[in-house]
Amino acid sequence: MKLRMVSALAIALGSVAYAQSAPPAGYLDIDEFDVMAVIEPAPRPGDPRYEADRAIFRDTRSLAGSDRYALATNDVQTDASAMLRDFSCAVGVTLTPDNAAQLALVAQRAATDTGAQVRRAKEAYRRERPYVIDQGLTCQTPAELFDVRANRASYDYPSGHSTWGWTWALVLAGAVPDRAQQVLERGRAYAESRIVCGAHNQSAVEAGMLAASATMALVQAKPAYLADLAAAREELEALRREPTARPANCDAEALLVAQPVLPPLVESPAGP
User: Fold this and answer.
1) DSSP code of 26?
2) Which of 8, 117, 183, 270 is the most exposed place for a label (fewest CB within 10 A)?
3) 8: buried, middle or exposed (CB in 10 Å: 19+, 13-18, 0-12)?
4) Furthest-apart CA pair in the chain: how many Å?
5) What is the pLDDT of residues 232-241, one digit of tens each?
6) Distances in Å between the alpha carbon of 179 and those of 92, 146, 248?
7) Residues 209, 176: contact at Cβ < 8 Å?
8) From CA 160, how far away is CA 150, in angstroms rounded?
9) pTM of the predicted model, to two decimals?
10) Where are the beta strands (DSSP E) in 87-163?
11) 159 touches 208 (CB < 8 A)
């Protein structure tokens, strides 16, 4: 079954609504951590990673119109309702802001910390998005990726969407450890959706996931986070005991999550 593609208008309205709501406070002090000491600098022209990013962007444009492209378009949305929906199959129950309010709170608080780190790195590296360098279809319009305050396209490296999705995955994996593999697989696919969309380079997606993991290593040691996570775990345990309907289209989603996005590596010929 094909996943329904989200219209550009709905995505834009959802993004505006999210931007207008103030994010909850994070768990870290503003100068407690600097992710730029952990992630690699953004690739520059002449760097093999730079050319690899360009090749991957061009190659993955062939995914436009596919079911995987539809999933990537769905993954553009970042509000709590969308994130809970996107991880419902991985958890095994239908998650909503009403029945998983504590989970949404802890994930959003953690994402405040990981997002702040990524914004700092974006401004430092100022790498252009792939569609600015090479022409190609994207699942978001340039207007949706435009930074109005700076009057230019927002920067590529690291990927904020990938950071956001991987943060949610790490929080959820701690809240439902028996479903950690499914949750992390969905988080990886959520991040890779940015490659499928053509909105971010592969290196930016990898940097976003690393930025989330590195920041979360510190967040996960905070007593306030542990208390919030324990409350979220109790909330989900109670929800999973209820006779809740299984989320729809999980088998179709699982096939797309397992689908390789990047081209296979070319092995070097065997030596004599």
Assistant:
1) -
2) 270
3) middle
4) 64
5) 999 999 999 9
6) 8, 36, 18
7) no
8) 17
9) 0.88
10) 146-147, 152-153
11) yes
